[in-house]
Amino acid sequence: MQQAFHDRHALQCGFCTPGMIMAAVDLLAENPDPTDAEIREGLEGNLCRCTGYQNIVRAVHDAARSPREVGR
Ligand code: FES
Q1: What CATH number should be reported for the domain whose range is 2-65?
Q2: Does residue 13 have its Cβ closer than 6 Å to ligand 1?
Q3: How far apart (Å, rounded) are the C-alpha atoms in residues 66 and 33?
């Protein structure tokens, strides 16, 4: 997940990043192939002041397809 956030430039100032990553890992544990809407719903408790939501959603999709995130 951290690599996906890095690769997709899913963080700017980094203030929200720990919470986003923890919520995203939990989301994939429950739902390994989420839709965009399900990702946004799963992360909705975390606010990004830098408004990088689109790249965050892309990063979670990438992580969902990553062998590292599968089979946990
Ligand atoms: S990256 Fe700055 S608050 Fe999300």
Answers
A1: 1.10.150.120
A2: yes
A3: 11
Is 42's C-beta closer than 6 angstroms to any atom of ligand 1?
A: no
What's the pTM?
0.90
pLDDT at res. 69: 64
Q: Where along the chain do its domains lie?
A: 2-65
Structure tokens, 66: 């990553």
pLDDT band at 67; cut points 50, 70, 90:
confident
The reply to whether ligand 1 has any atom less than 6 angstroms from the CB of 59 is no
Q: Please say whether the beta carbons of 66 and 7 come within 8 A.
A: no
The one-letter amino acid code at 2 reads Q
Residues 24 and 32: beta-carbon distance below 8 Å? no
